Amino acid sequence: MAVMGASVADRAVPHPRFRVRDRSGSRSVGRGNAGWLEGIPLTATEIGGTIGWLQNPVPPAFEGGFPILVHPAPEWCVREQRMREKGHAMASIQTSGRKAATLAGTLLLAGCCFMLGLAPVETAAKTRPGATAPAVPASPTPADRGGCPVGQLPDCNGNCFPTNWLGDGLCDDGAYDYNGVPIFLNCSSFNCDNGDCDPSNCLLDDDCGSCDAGGLAENEPCGSQLNGGCDDGSFNHTSVDCGTTICGRSWAENGQADIDWYEVFLPDANFDSEDMLRLTVESQLPLIVEVYRDCLDEPLAVAQADGCDGEPIELCLEAPKLYYIRILPGQLSSGPVTAGYPCSIGFEYTLEVSCETDCDFVRCPTCVPAPDGLLAWWSMDDLETAPSVYELIHENDGMPSGQIDLESTGVVEAGIRFNGGHLQAADQDRLDFRENGDFSVASWIRLETDPIGVHPIIDKRTSDAQSERGWTFTTSDGRLVLKMTDVDGFSAIWGTPVAITDGGWHHVAVTVDRDQSNGIRFYIDGTLVGEFDPTTVPGDLSTTSDILIGRSQRLDDQASAATFTGFMDELQVYRRDLTGDELQGIFDAGCGGMCKVRMHVPRVTAYCEGQAQSDAIVTISNATNQDRWFDLLYDGLGGEPNGGGYCIEDGPSIFTPGQQNPIYVPAGTTVEVVVVIDRPSGLQELGDSACWTATLQETDTSFELVRKGTVTVNDQICVEAESDSVLQVPVGVPFPVKFTLSNQTTNDRSYFYRIGCIQSVGGEPNESVRLNGEEPGDEVFDYVVVPASGSVEVVVEVLYLRQRGKSEKAGYSDIVMYREPGTDVPWYGGDSQGIEPSESPVETCESDINCDGTVDVSDLLAVIAAWGDCKPDADCPEDVNGDGTVDVNDLLAVIGAWG
Question: 193 or 658: which carries more pLDDT confidence?
């Protein structure tokens, strides 16, 4: 089956949007991977200004998804010699699927032909279950119990049901359950009104999920699917108004399940661009409730409703906007509910929808300066698809093993949920504390309520194969515990008299001054809870063991090594004993977290045609309360031609910094160091790239920070970012970032590009940033024609999103322009612009409210939306005349400046 181009005028057909994913379910399609269309039976796909017609109906073998290959077929579309030799090029589209449509449309508009190849692949884990109407089990009317097939029993009407649904209790003993879990039924549910069922043995009637007068009935017959929404491709959603209670029925049998979709419009009742959506669900069976911004996006929230005791789902969301609610059978202790709740009965649930204005933005406290002496810092903010957990100080990443969930609930940004798994980081001498060597360990943890047993936080001891040596910080029955064993065999264990038992988040720490009789101090939430004497273990604690986070190195008289169960965030190790005031400050900062000594290296530094050198700026930010002196060192990395990354050629070897070591960075300031990088000999043509590192070392401590950059070749079209410095981008306000494209040839040149926002630490898309109004983390695709010996500007609008419960100190990112997004090489020229979020006051552009250079309807609507008094201490660019109130005078000022 193939997709052939046809104009929009040729066919008018429905066209659901699609998303590209790899086979693991992640958001990107990496180089050489085949993507798949998320599992809906498509009838057509819109591609730019073109409609591609898919044969209909879709064969069953294709329902799991389709790999996508984009082939620029004609010779004139394949300009690079390496592609001509291959005859085609496979797309490397690292983006969501709707951008693939834009890319394909761009190729078509530029005169390129392509084919979207489709072939069946196995269903990926992210595919939603089909919501087609299943067959209801056969219901013969046997004369007696023997009339049902093997494995089935009759109800009071003689209808047959599988025994693993409701057990042997439909008529005789009243044991209504599914795999031992009671369900909310009574005898009358099975029409047991002829004396065959003993009412005393039936479950009591439970009104949970029953609808009160005035509720809106779903009215979906058994076996039908009236509101299958995004699951069955119908996109039928039942519209719900704020203040409405939906009366629905759900079921699960024979591996099939009812799925209901609702849509609700969230108004902006108080004109602050944010309202609260509150959902309350009661049900007669376990239900999963999901909230979506868009059909094919990841859910904004997922919760399970069990009976009458479900907590309301409360979300502060962008408004005015339409949101989607998906309801389906949930989980029992035995697993997903796929049977036991017959369609013929129907199990009631109610969905109460309310919309409220009480949604004031709660900003995190200002970050606290990072205490001196950090040796290791696992912030645990990594995306769930990350291969490792990044360590911010020395890049000693933790490799996941076993059951852990990245991008889980945390205190500062995200955290990690441990459920028997752990992290393993390589042995580092920095965490080997010599004779009388002081140290501290601190972390946010969330244990289960009334935890039992040992739950290790971090362990740097030897394994059971060796004599015990080293140190570990753990919990036992909720109490904080430190154990040290030195090279001479001296060993001791110290623990707190109080325990953490409430199941909530707590900041825990132990500080160790090893030559003081009260040198061990335990802290919970900044409060001292215990002091002990460490001088009995004065010797060297060094080991060659790796660092285990969330698991014990040794059995410790147990049958198996203990593991951490719960959540963890912001694990840090220091080379000194922290003070009580420092730990109180970290706790008080809460989700604001700790300010960092940070360094930014440009992600891309390009050599334009004929250039032998190129400048880069290394930015050092000292967000602590102490003046610091640093040495800045440079090095080129060895090439990896077959490594699949950007370090293809050997890195540069000649660096000429504009400032000599040591570099003085006063407290609370940022310093820029210009470095001239000579072009490596291996960088000869477009597509060649190499890597280099900058290492920041503090002259009087062991602090060290390493960042990596890339150098590459711009051929024919030279791309230059707006500034070599890191730009301060205001949070919550669209901000333009500009690239200048210069044509170094005497012919007009088409330049295809994609632009993305990449986190400088970790290299993942920054999902706190929108580009040109697209979804957070998504890239922008387009192309321009650059005139001969001329230049054009490409401007992308960058918007840092405000996020409830997250720190504004989000670190550095890079806006990267890539060339030729449809080619099979990892990198084609381009440049990058460093950015970071800023809460500094935004410079107003008078009547041009959004500062886009034009006073138009967007500015008029902004004034109307902000009508009334400006909030204290808040940016209020809509108050054009600065009198503290957005009113008719400001409206007239915008109209007067129109154009």
Answer: 658
**3-state DSSP assignment of residue 797:** strand
Eight-state DSSP code of residue 156: T
Residue 701: strand, helix, or coil: coil
pLDDT tens digit sequence for 828-861: 568 899 998 875 434 446 777 876 667 888 788 8
Place of tokens 């429905």: 14
- CB of 443 closer than 8 Å to CB of 570: yes
For strand 216-217 and strand 245-250, is the pairing parallel, antiparallel, or unpaired?
parallel
* Pairing verdict, β 704-713 and 689-698: antiparallel
**Residues 6 or more apart whose Cβ sits within 8 Å of residue 208:** 184, 282, 283, 284, 307, 308
Q: How crowded is the C-beta side of 518, counted as CA atoms within 13 Å? A: 4
Quick count: other Cβ atoms within 10 Å of Cβ 200? 6
Compute the CA torsion angle 519, 521, 526, 528 (nearest 10 deg). Answer: -110
Buried b (16+ CB within 10 A) or exposed e, 227-264: bbbbbbbbbebbebebebbbbbbbbbbeebbbbbbbbb
Domain coordinates of the chain in residue numbers?
Answer: 2-117, 145-201, 216-356, 376-592, 599-838, 857-896
Return d(Cα 847, Cα 855) in angstroms, integer. Answer: 7
The domain defined by 599-838 folds into: Immunoglobulin-like (2.60.40)
CA distances from 798 to 413, 604, 731, 778, 833 (A): 21, 19, 10, 12, 11
Domains 216-356 and 599-838 share a fold: no
Helix (H) or strand (E) holding 896: helix 888-896
Token code pair at residue 492: 């001791």
Chain position carrying tokens 């032909």: 113
Region 614-639: mean pLDDT is 87
Q: Global pTM?
A: 0.47
How many C-beta neighbours within 10 Å does residue 27 have? 20
The pLDDT tens digits for 372-421 are 788 899 989 887 878 889 887 777 889 999 999 998 888 887 899 999 99
CATH topology of domain 376-592: Jelly Rolls (2.60.120)
Q: How far apart are CA 652 and CA 631, in angstroms?
A: 19
The CATH number assigned to the domain with range 216-356 reads 2.60.120.380
Poorest-confidence range of 204-218, 694-708, 810-824? 204-218
Structure tokens at 39: 């599992």
What pLDDT score was predicted for residue 887?
A: 85
